[in-house]
Amino acid sequence: AGEFPTDFIRSIINEDQAAGAYDGRVVTRFPPEPNGYLHIGHAKSICLNFGVGEQYQGARCHMRFDDTNPTREDIEYVESILADVKWLGFDWGENLFYASDYFEQLYEYAEQLIRDSNAYVDSLTADEIREFRGTLTEPGKESPDRNRPAEESLDLFRRMRAGEFADGEYVLRAKIDMASPNLNLRDPVLYRIRHAEHHRTGKDWCIYPMYDYAHSLSDSIEGITHSLCTLEFEDHRPLYDWCQEALGVYRSRQIEFARLNLTHTVLSKRRLRQLVEEGHVAGWDDPRMPTLSALRRRGYTPESIRDMCERVGVARRNTMTELALLEHCLREDLNRRAPRRMAVLRPLKVVITNYPEAGSETFEAINNPEDETMGTRCVPFGREVYIERDDFMEDPPRRFYRLAPGREVRLRYACLITCTDVVKDELGEIVEVHCTYDPESRRRVRGTIHWVSAADAIPIEIRLYDNLFTESDPAGSETDFLDLIDRDSLEKVIAKGEPALAKAQAGDRFQFERLGYFCADTDTQPEAPVFNRTTTLRDTWAR
Ligand code: ATP
Ligand code: MG
Ligand code: MG
Known about the structure:
The protein has helices at residues 8-19, 40-55, 75-88, 103-115, 126-133, 150-162, 211-221, 237-247, 269-277, 292-298, 302-312, 323-337, and strands at 27-30, 60-65, 96-98, 119-122, 171-174, 189-193, 207-209, 226-230, 253-257, 340-341, 343-344, 347-352, 360-366, 376-382, 384-388, 408-411, 416-424, 430-438, 448-449, 452-453, 458-465, 490-497, 509-512, 516-520, 530-535. By secondary structure, the protein is α/β, with parallel strands linked by helices. It has three domains: 8-257, HUPs (Rossmann fold, 3-Layer(aba) Sandwich), CATH 3.40.50.620; 269-339 and 460-535, CATH 2.40.240.10; 341-457, CATH 2.40.240.10. It has a seven-stranded mixed β-sheet with strand order 10-23-24-25-21-22-11, covered by helices on one side. A seven-stranded mixed β-sheet has the order 19-16-17-18-12-15-20, with no helix packed on it. Helix 2 (40-55) links the parallel strand 1 and strand 2. Helix 2 (40-55) packs across helix 11 (302-312) and helix 11 crosses helix 12. It is elongated, with a radius of gyration of 30 Å. It binds adenosine-5'-triphosphate (ATP) and magnesium ion (2 copies).
């Protein structure tokens, strides 16, 4: 394996380069529609397009907003998309484009199609057009307007633009083949009337180009050589080609690859928007969402997402990627980079009865056993410490190597303690345990547990997450995906953290020993940290 991945798309580009195709140029683009936040599926396309743009001599990748559908697009999405692409580590340089900047050119192309009898203005309604289109087994029916003289179509098209008609009164259709086995070629609609305000062009336009037309010609206008898109567009390719051929403009090549699918989530903007708009989650960046902004907030690193995309690779076969792979990539990255800290999620007080009442000392703790350069820190210790409730059992099985009456355990970095007593309230609930400590502490014992000093600990809010969906393929299930939401997928606890955590700033990532990786949330206030558990330590990725 070299520095760059290998896949069938890069093989095609290599061949094109060897043959001197496209004058030796390689130009790709990432063309999101600004109608939602980017999700991790988009990351695959970003890594591929920008990756190719970085790989070849003189190559580049255009960042292009495919903003041709005014109704659900917004500047908020434009900004979030740019921030997410940057965060992932890619740079479009000067190559930031908007398809809406081509509206005039696209309009002129449409007039040319009409003059060349390659397009006509049709007065059928949307329902009629659907009806006339036929089915896979039945040829379509020609519209009575199909042979409208070019002059007449031209006049109507200009009046469409001038705003003389209401939404839906007319459309512009390509004149291709109503009997084509490919339904996309049965005189597809190229333009529709939509009296709507556009986030960039305002009220300049009341006709808007359809996706296939706008996309093909935007690629051509920008001199895109390899237009990489997902497999659903395979049978749109003949229309993509037709638009460029009919107009005799620069020819780009569309190549399809399989989209990323990830278990336990949904990767479709439509569904994600529904989750946000109906309040099933707190927002696009709710840490349970698969959007890049949510993954960032939760504590995912851009490196781990790029690593996953590279491991999944680019192919033409549709597969389902295990969420466990993404988590595995994250753990590998954070294991190397995240400083260790101690925090106790569900505290149980331990009183060390043979330790001086007002005594205190500090122990040196290693910040990252994987990276010596990260050094050590001092953690305070005293007569009372908190340990995890789970790390104590009054009546444990033989193989429980943590704390229990009469048993000895090591407090990490500190000393050995032996449980001598259990204190309960009237209801029989354990309120604290008493131990004695051994200042020598040289012996080896089976169990080591984490802890924090009760006198020094700070309260930290911790948000624990489960998968948002109870099934591995919520979008593919027979049950509506909204009914598969795990309503208990967020749990908030007030934990006890070592004092160093008071200084945490939003975005800081740590491993809390034995508990997982955590990231300070954007809700963090000075001296009042809020942490998201990004992931636990247990890696379930098996390969
Ligand atoms: P969605 O299907 O989630 O609504 P979309 O395809 O409509 O997404 P666009 O904004 O049009 O969203 O997508 C921009 C680019 O990202 C397109 O080239 C698209 O093919 C690609 N893309 C979207 N989803 C995925 C995915 N799951 N895997 C790989 N590429 C994707
Ligand atoms: Mg789209
Ligand atoms: Mg889509």
